[in-house]
Design goal:
This protein has 186 residues and is α+β, with helices and mostly antiparallel strands. The protein has 3 helices and 13 strands; from the N terminus they run ββββαβββααββββββ. The N terminus is likely disordered.
């Protein structure tokens, strides 16, 4: 899917709750709420959005200079189960849309019932995602607990992990084989 941002006009302000968005694939998303708002160095927001069938998604502003590059980086990774990558775009507002996952690892670690089995599952899924990136010569650039997203259920007081994915790939970069990056070598 080719994106053209030459005509994209990012809103001067934050999208309002209830805003209807038509994506590149023709899907309709509605902004439910602003989850995160940053104004420095530029306006950048993360939104909870839903489709008409009630399915939750995350929509996130992407910098104009990064839009094409990031779509080209993330789209080929869509089949990697350990990675939360953009599934759709709204070029008019420079938004990427992602699957919604219940919690990030930072928030989950604060909950009761976080078992050894749950931790192993998160580690396995996350390392699978990281390996998929490195196999393709991609450096994530911002691995931390708040960038590992988890779907889970609470069963008899114990957290049961459905899936875990590394997300926030916007800091990611393709690395030329043999090139050193901050002292690390892929």
């Amino acid at each position: 899917m080719s994106m053209s941002t030459s005509h994209a006009t990012q809103s001067k302000g934050v999208l309002k709750v209830g805003t209807r968005l038509v994506s590149q694939t023709g899907a309709l998303y509605y902004i439910d709420r602003v989850l995160q708002r940053r104004t420095e160095p530029d306006l950048s927001c993360v939104f909870l959005a839903t489709t008409q069938d009630g399915k939750k998604h995350i929509s996130k502003n992407i910098y104009p200079t990064e839009f094409e590059y990031q779509w080209g980086l993330q789209a080929p990774l869509a089949s990697c189960p350990g990675l939360r990558v953009a599934k759709d775009t709204v070029p008019e507002h420079l938004l990427f849309t992602y699957d919604f996952l219940t919690e990030d690892l930072l928030g989950l670690a604060r909950k009761d019932g976080f078992s050894y089995t749950a931790r192993k599952r998160i580690l396995r899924d996350s390392l699978t995602g990281l390996a998929a990136l490195h196999e393709r010569g991609i450096l994530h650039g911002d691995i931390k607990p708040s960038n590992i997203f988890v779907d889970y259920d609470l069963v008899d007081g114990t957290i049961k992990i459905e899936r875990a994915q590394i997300g926030d790939l916007e800091m990611g970069s393709m690395i030329t084989p043999g090139v050193n990056v901050r002292g690390a070598r892929l």
